[in-house]
Amino acid sequence: MEAQQYIEVLLIEDRFEDAELAIDSLREGGLINQIKLLKDGQEALDYLFAEGSYEDVSPGLPKLIFLDLKLPKVSGMEVLKRLKTSEKHKHVPVVVLTSSKEDIDIEKAYDLGANSYIVKPVDFDNFSNAVRQVGLYWVVLNTSPNS
Amino acid sequence: MLLLMENVYFDVSLYDLFEGGTKSNNLKGSENYLNPIKNNKTMNKQSLTSFCCSVVFFLCLIVFIGWQFDIPFLTNILPGSPATTPLTAFLLVLISVSLLLSTPSISALWLKRLGMVICVTVGLFSLWLLIKYLLGFSPDIESVFYEDAMKLRYPVFQGRPSLRTLISALLISSTIGLSFFYKKKQRVVHVLALVSWIIPWLTLFGYASLNNPFYEFPNASQVGMSPITAICFLLLTIGVFGLDPKHGIINFLKSSPLGNRVVRILLPISVFAPLVFSWLVLYANNRGFFENISVISVDWAFTSLIFIGMVLLAGYFITDRDAKLKESENQYHRLVEDVQDYSIIMLDITGKVVSWNKGAESIKGYKESEIIGQHFSVFYTEEDKQANRPDSLLNEALRNVRVEDEGWRLRKNGNPFWANVVITAIFDQNKKHVGFSKVTRDQTLKKSFQEKIEVSERHFRQFLESAPDAMIIANAEGKIVYSNLQAHKLFGYSKEEFLVNNVEELMPGNFRSNHQKHRSEYMISPKVRMMGTGMELKGLKKDGTEFPIEIALSPIMTEEGLLVSAAIRDITVAKRAHEEIELLNSTLEKRAEEILASNKELEAFSYSVSHDLRAPLRAIAGFSNKLLRKHSDNLDDEGKRVVDVILKNTYRMGQLIDDILMFSRLNRTNISFTPLDLQLLFKEAYQNLIQAENSKRDIEFNVSTLPLIKGDRSTMMQAITNLVSNALKYTRPRQKTVINIGYLEKEGEITIFIKDNGVGFDDRHIDKLFGVFQRLHNDDEFEGTGVGLAIVQRVLHRHLGKIWAEGKIDQGATFYFQIPTI
Fold first, then answer.
1. A16: distance to nearest CA of chain B, Å?
2. Which candidate from A99, A122, A125 shows the least CB-CB separation from B611?
């Protein structure tokens, strides 16, 4: 079953184009078939806390979460806050991946416990490199208490 | 010695009687002795009379007791001397009663009449007994009291009163009767009383002569007046004197200190000394001391001694009194002479100076010896003398007794002084004119003081006239007492019209009634203050127009009472200006709010730009890239070129968005000031840029030591990076790039420059150099968004600095900036 398949990277992103490009970059880095895309904040919370439509599914915790801040229904900041205040989820590394270069957003994200903050550049090469390297770092090199 | 003491004692008790006291205290009496006129108020005027009558009552009571219990001592006193008969005692009592009733303190008419009836009855009865006696009738009614005892002791007289007693009774009752009828002729009464004094007085002398039956005189009567009767008659006579204290002896005692002293001391001596001496002489004679000497000679000798003593005493009293008068007169003279502030001089009837005091000397400057005998016109000015003023003043003083004058007079040295002069005509006892007194005060100081006050008042008025505000002074009733020119101009009234106005007429009707109330309140607690604070006050011109005013009030204390000065200012113009300012302020506030709102919108806008505009760009770039890399097999060269153009423009668009966001963020972010080393910043920026460019250029980068500044690190770093990047960019075509950074100091101002040897710029367009999106070069030559220098300028402005540039095409460019240093 797909649900039981171990998910290494969770990508929470409402923009399909950005998601596709990010997934392309991650795959180029070697992280194949272990990426799950969630389209809004509510879905992300349902999935991570096994609520709503994910009630009966227990996918386990991912190794890394890419989180966009601008999300429909529940904002990325809200999701970040829920994750980092939950005993079970707080050790999951969360990389904020967003278009915003605003200081206020950066500050707030780190305050809430974000592990990295990456501004999505327009330049594809830069974007691709950033996503690939961060993904590799957190998934492959980093040792987390959960693993 | 003993005698003297008795006299003194008698004095005092007699004196006490006048003082109305029942005091027998010696000491008290002595105190009052010093001041006989004092305590008139407490004096009971008839206390002497009452006292005498009381003693008479007491003696008569003793006589009756003597007869009742047959004790001869009480009726005769001296063995062998005649006794006071009961009838005599009875008559004496009646006379005393009538005397008491005749005193002015008895006001009831019926009592007066009773006294009169008793008096007349006693008089007539005595006359009747006297006639009976003289005509040789035997006594009958005379023995009405104790008839048996009378007949037993006096077989012949059977209680008949002696001839002397009857005469005395007749005299004294006539005297008292007269005092009833002749209230205004007390002198007659006193003369009659002195006559009644004679018989009992001689009788007492008779007793004093011991074996000489003088008291039996006239011998024919064969019986004399008893000593008790004599004493009683004397007391009654004294009582008569006491009836009217305003006349006779009592008057001496009271009204004149000298008369009082003479009578009080000499009268008792003259009464008692001969009595005592004649007793002593006769006593000595009886013992045989004067065998060969005439008793009468001795008696006269003593009497003469007494007279001498009394005359000497009287002389001493008068001299003493004179000396005291003289002393007080001297004191008065010295007082007048020593008065310094007043010139007090005497003139004779022609106006020549006859006396001079120290005050005259100090005021007028003449010494006494120089001026005595001169005419007083020397003190007058020439004009006054010619106008005959001195003589006319004397004449006026003579007519009206007193004349007062003020004017300039001359001192000895010729200096004038302002004098206040009072001349009084002096008359002697016979109303003969003897001269003038002239009292002069030097009022020069007062006069000059007055003049100063007048000058200061004039200044005050000038000051008020020149005041820029309308000034009005009003009294407590609100009546205008003074107004200045500005007030006339402001309200349109003339000065004369103003002075009949009340202040209420200068304000519109609706203010008037309240103002009257406020005015009286102000008068209760006057102080300097603005009128009607918080109220919009209005004035009313003569033509009826109203205008806004401001009024400052201040109280002025004057001789005419409390006045209030009001400074009134027309605030029409000020008010209008104030209204305009308020309008402008409110517009400004609205503007500020609008700006604030638009700032917020801008923020939301730029936030949205940073997210939403870049996302599609990213997609375009990302998918174009994917197309190139993954689908390059399906693209020919032209297709690849087109995708490349799309990519380049996408990046450029991204760069533009980033720059514009940064530029707008500069306005919004707060900057914090810390000390910064500009030299380090330049070096750091250069290193970063060189690393990023990653090319092998020949670059000479010189940066000198630069002053420390206070600034925000991140924005300053941005500005400096932009400047260095600019220099590097436009020197790219050069073989060798030279960039010099340093500073100039001129008149304390520090200017930092960054000079390159690049392509420079066309300085005709220098005004566009720092504009947003303004570029002086083509994109083909030099890439750029046209935001970099705009950011530099904005950063410097936020640091209160400024920037400018110099440059020519192909001759390099120099950027200068100033920024507050530490």
1. 9
2. A99
